[in-house]
Amino acid sequence: MFKGIKNLIDTRLKQNIILDEFTNNYGTFIKIDPSDLYLVVLFLKRDPDTRLSILEQIIDLESGFFCWPNLGITENLELLYQFKSLKMPYKISIGIEIDPQNPFVLCIKQVYKAAGFFQQDLSKKHKLEFEEPSKLRSLGI
Q: Count of CB atoms within 10 A of residue 92's CB?
């Protein structure tokens, strides 16, 4: 198993993507910029050291419900994507903060088909718009 998801992603993608990371009894939690969501999700599903084959759920977290240890409490809506592997003994959750002035989120249903159901529910509940990650197609991802 890897030493830390931040180290793994930063090293393999050669970018500093993870804003915050912590681990507790429930798994590893990382916070990223919403613009990096598709890239990170695709990486975590395909990488042999993570093999996150299942999207368990996408949870909407209201302001102040979930506090990131190093970044403090947010005033915006947060989405928490929870993944697990059938082959590896861990779970990883990805948190993104949604700007109420720009409620666009990258769609990940191309990577995880179940995401479509969660995204549809969140779209109705919070008036979020899920965009196809067209800029990543030009990168060959």
A: 21
